[in-house]
Specification:
Blueprint lengths: L1 E5 L4 H13 L7 E5 L3 H18 L4 E5 L2 H5 L4 E4 L6 H14 L11 H25 L4 E4 L4 H11 L4 E4 L6 H10 L6 E8 L2 E9 L7 H11 L3 E3 H10 L21 E3 L4 H10 L7 H4 L12 H16 L15 H10 L3 E9 L12 E9 L2 E4 L7 H23 L2 H10 L9 H11 L1 H4 L4
Parallel strand pairs: 1-2, 1-4, 2-3, 4-5, 5-6
Antiparallel strand pairs: 7-8, 9-10, 11-12, 12-13
């Protein structure tokens, strides 16, 4: 078996994913091929990985190359986690330049005007990767961790409908963080199904495994009080550290990254979250910074301090990721259990994958990607649909599916006109003046990645 990691020069992605693979007995004997365009970073990750294999006597072959065709030739599974350029410099531009021209947004990563330009940068190189997969390894399954997830997945599956391409996201793991505390039961005692668009998804059903009773009434009763409790920054740090989302700092593994005079505050980044819980009677699976990108009234209620705190935390965490080491004590990414289920043909249910809708969520377009549960087996990954979906929240989703439709078409065809129409379709867009000036500014600032727009 050949497992290919594209973007493996990132220590966080390369070392973390290798650690998950090294933990797997079913994957023993596989070739793990690391690919990145940065040869220096790639060699650093390869050496750490090879030293780990040698030190533990593991049965894996580790290779590395900057040649994508060489990496993909004969691949069985391909995992993509790439960005282009300086991630945070471009993110700052995505966030702040639209605000300068009067286009409202609260985070600028995946939705809003910032998410549009992020999508237009990242989709073309991922389409190039997928074109090579279709040529060199057409039977391979491709797992993508890059954002913006919905626009990438929609564009890829429109251009390559035969490709076995799946978008993967960490956000569903947030349910592990707080549902046991809300319900007073182990996470393993809960049967949960969530669905929507990536970063714009809610819990649809919940029941207790031991009794079969509906757990949603308890969630609606107990969750509001739970999220009013004070949460110390040290608690946030400890959770992030244990789940692999915080850097190990010299001398301590329990240092808060943010310097605040207040020792704690209510659960951050969840004011909009609580409004959705109240107004729609649904529990979001993500936080204000993510879900707020898609809702025009989010800026009126979102936790803007919490959003900025998370951004700074994330930036610092990734900037120190080069200190990371391989850890095979716990599986952090869900992609390895998915590959194991495909290899062993032992059916399992995966909580969230991003695939083309095709009727999985009623009322949404078939040709836009959605985030749904899935059954994984030797047959591959098959989405689990919903017979019904909450009308109120579906209306919010529909507001954004038109934007994703236009973003995918703009990226595939290199159309500036469609990009402008996508910006006008974003629900938070409330102006047309300076639209062309903003697009001109972004194309000039991000010319290496956006000059294909004509």
């Amino acid at each position: 078996m050949k497992l290919v990691l594209i973007g493996a020069g990132s220590a966080q992605f390369g070392l973390g994913t290798m650690g998950d693979m090294f933990r797997s007995r079913l994957l023993r004997g596989a070739e793990i091929c690391l690919m990145d365009i940065n040869g220096e970073s790639l060699e650093r990750v390869r050496k750490i990985g090879q030293d780990f294999i040698d030190g533990k006597g593991l049965d894996f072959t580790l290779t590395a190359t900057t040649d994508r065709a060489e990496a993909l030739d004969g691949a069985d599974h391909v995992i993509i986690s790439i960005e282009v350029g300086d991630r945070f410099e471009l993110w700052d531009q995505d966030w702040n330049y639209p605000l300068q021209y009067g286009f409202n947004q609260i985070y600028g990563e995946n939705g809003g005007a910032g998410g549009l330009f992020h999508s237009l940068r990242i989709i073309p190189p991922i389409l190039d990767i997928c074109s090579d997969v279709m040529r060199l390894a057409p039977a391979a399954t491709v797992f993508c961790y890059s954002n913006p997830m919905t626009s990438i997945t929609t564009a890829v599956l429109r251009k390559f409908p035969e490709l076995k391409f799946v978008g993967m996201c960490h956000e569903i793991a947030s349910l592990h963080r707080y549902l046991p505390g809300i319900l007073g039961t182990d996470f393993e005692n809960l049967r949960l199904r969530a669905g929507g668009l990536n970063h714009f998804s809610v819990l649809i059903s919940a029941e207790y495994a031991d009794t079969g009773a509906d757990a949603y009434p308890d969630i609606l009763e107990k969750a509001p009080g739970f999220f009013e409790k004070a949460l110390g920054y040290s608690d946030i740090w400890e959770y992030a550290r244990r789940t692999g989302h915080a850097p190990e700092t010299e001398g301590s593994t329990h240092q808060p990254i943010l310097d605040h005079s207040e020792p704690s505050r209510p659960w951050s980044d969840r004011k909009l979250f609580r409004e959705i819980l109240k107004r729609y009677r649904l529990l979001p699976i993500t936080v204000d910074s993510h879900i707020g990108e898609y809702i025009p009234w989010a800026r009126d209620t979102a936790d803007h301090q919490g959003i900025r705190d998370f951004y700074e935390f994330y930036r610092r965490a990734l900037s120190t990721a080069e200190r990371m080491v391989i850890d095979d004590s716990v599986t952090r990414e869900r992609v390895v259990p998915i590959i194991e289920a495909m290899v062993s043909d032992e059916a399992m249910e995966e909580m969230a994958v991003n695939i083309m809708n095709n009727g999985l969520i009623p009322g949404l377009p078939d040709d836009v990607a959605v985030e749904v549960p899935a059954t994984v087996s030797g047959r591959g990954i098959e989405g689990i649909g919903f017979d019904t979906y909450p009308r109120g929240f579906a209306a919010l989703l529909r507001n954004y599916t038109g934007t994703y439709d236009l973003i995918a078409e703009a990226a595939i065809h290199g159309s500036r006109e469609l990009a402008a129409q996508a910006l006008l379709a974003i629900p938070s867009t409330d102006r047309i003046r300076d639209l062309d000036a903003l697009i001109d500014h972004m194309v000039q600032a991000q010319r290496p990645w956006l000059d294909y727009l004509k």
